[in-house]
C-alpha cells in the first residue's frame, strides 16, 4: 500500500524548494549512547554522502527513557525549519504531538524502528522497521528448538510500551505460550540500561535455578544479561538468546555464552530512512511500511556475508 497526503506533499515541496541547496534532514534516535543507534548514524551518513542536495544532523537523548528530551529535539528541529525528519520514537504517544506539528509545518517525517500510536497515522510518510512481531516469533521458535517445550524461560526486556518492545516481546511470549508448555518468568524491564539488566539477570538466575532459557530483547539488555551469565557461572548451562549485534554480543556468540542473536538491519534503517525522506521531498510516492529485516546469527554463520552485513 502506498500513500501520500497531498496537502503535506505540497507544503513539503514548497519548503524543500527554498532549502534544496542545503536542506537539513534531522535524524533523531532513541539514544546516542548505543552502538545500535550509532550504526543507524552510519547508514544515514552513507545515504547523505550519496547525494549533494541535503545535509544531515544526528541526535538523540542520553538514555532511551529520557522521553521529554527527545520530544524537545523534534520540536527544535521543527523550529529551525529542517527539510525532513527521520525519527525513532522512544514513546508511541509522547512523540505523536511533535510529529503532528511537523506535519502541520510541511516537514515530512519518516519513522524508524518503533511505531507511533494509532492516532498518529497520516502524520508521517513511512514507517521503516524490523517486523518485530515476526522477529519475536523467530526467536521463540529457536528457543523451543534449543530448550525444549518444558521448564522456565525468563524474558529480560527493555522499556515497557515502546512499539518495538510490544511486538518483539509480545509475539515472543504469544508464540511460546501457543507452542510449548514453557513457563514465562518476567518480563523484566532494564530501561535499556546495561547495568540494570546485569543486576536484574543476576537476581533472576539466583531466584530461578531451574531456568532452561533466557531472552535479552535489545542490545544493552542482552549485553547485561550475557555478563550476568558469565559472572554467575551459568554461561552455557541454559539457552540464552539475544537481540541486536554489537561487538560484545558477537563475542558472546563466539564464546558460547549466547546461543544466537537476532540482528536488525540498523545500518539499513538509517540509510533507507534518509533516502525515503529524500524521495518524499522529490515528490515520489513511498511505501507506508518498509521491512528492514532481521538475521539470526549463531556460531555457525557469524562469519558469513549475510551476518557481517548486519553486525556492527
Provide structural commentary.
There is one protein chain. By secondary structure, the chain is an alpha/beta fold. The chain has two domains: 2-130 and 265-293, Response regulator (Rossmann fold, 3-Layer(aba) Sandwich), CATH 3.40.50.2300; 132-263, Rossmann fold (3-Layer(aba) Sandwich). Helices cover 45% and strands 21% of the residues. The chain is built from eleven helices and 14 strands. The chain has a six-stranded parallel beta sheet, with helices on both faces. Strands 8-7-9-10-11-14 form a six-stranded mixed beta sheet, with helices on both faces. α4 links the parallel β4 and β5. α2 (35-49) runs parallel beside α10, α3 packs parallel to α4 and α5 packs parallel to α6. The longest helix is centred in the middle third of the chain and has 17 residues, at 163-179. The radius of gyration is 20 Å and the shape is elongated. The model is unreliable at 1-22 (pLDDT under 50). Belongs to the bacterial solute-binding protein 2 family. This is Monosaccharide ABC transporter substrate-binding protein, CUT2 family.
Amino acid at each position: 500500500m502506498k500513500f501520500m497526503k497531498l496537502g503535506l506533499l505540497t507544503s513539503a515541496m514548497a519548503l524543500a524548494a527554498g532549502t534544496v541547496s542545503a536542506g537539513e534532514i534531522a535524524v533523531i534516535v532513541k539514544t546516542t549512547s548505543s552502538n545500535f543507534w550509532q550504526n543507524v548514524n552510519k547508514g544515514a551518513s552513507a545515504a547523505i554522502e550519496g547525494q549533494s542536495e541535503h545535509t544531515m544532523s544526528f541526535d538523540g537523548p542520553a538514555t532511551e527513557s529520557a522521553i521529554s528530551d527527545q520530544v524537545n529535539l523534534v520540536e527544535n528541529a521543527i523550529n529551525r525549519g529542517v527539510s525532513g525528519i527521520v525519527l525513532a520514537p522512544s514513546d508511541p504517544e509522547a512523540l505523536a504531538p511533535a510529529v503532528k506539528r511537523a506535519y502541520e509545518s510541511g516537514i515530512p517525517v519518516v519513522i524508524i524502528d518503533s511505531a507511533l500510536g494509532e492516532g498518529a497515522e497520516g502524520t508521517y510518510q513511512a514507517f521503516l522497521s524490523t517486523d518485530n512481531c515476526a522477529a519475536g516469533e523467530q526467536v521463540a521458535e529457536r528457543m523451543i528448538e534449543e530448550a525444549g517445550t518444558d521448564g522456565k524461560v525468563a524474558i529480560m526486556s527493555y522499556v515497557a510500551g515502546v512499539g518495538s518492545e510490544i511486538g518483539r516481546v509480545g509475539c515472543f511470549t504469544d508464540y511460546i505460550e501457543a507452542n510449548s508448555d514453557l513457563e514465562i518468568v518476567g518480563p523484566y524491564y532494564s530501561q535499556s540500561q546495561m547495568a540494570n539488566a546485569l543486576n536484574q539477570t543476576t537476581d533472576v538466575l539466583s531466584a530461578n535455578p531451574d531456568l532452561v532459557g533466557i531472552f535479552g530483547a535489545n542490545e544493552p539488555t542482552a549485553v547485561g544479561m550475557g555478563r550476568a551469565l558469565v559472572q554467575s557461572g551459568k554461561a552455557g548451562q541454559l539457552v540464552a538468546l539475544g537481540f541486536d549485534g554489537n561487538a560484545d554480543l558477537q563475542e558472546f556468540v563466539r564464546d558460547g555464552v549466547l546461543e544466537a542473536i537476532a540482528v536488525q538491519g540498523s545500518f539499513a534503517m538509517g540509510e533507507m530512512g534518509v533516502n525515503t525522506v529524500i524521495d518524499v521531498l522529490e515528490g515520489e510516492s513511498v511505501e507506508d511500511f518498509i521491512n528492514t529485516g532481521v538475521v539470526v546469527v549463531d556460531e555457525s554463520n557469524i562469519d558469513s556475508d549475510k551476518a557481517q552485513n548486519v553486525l556492527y
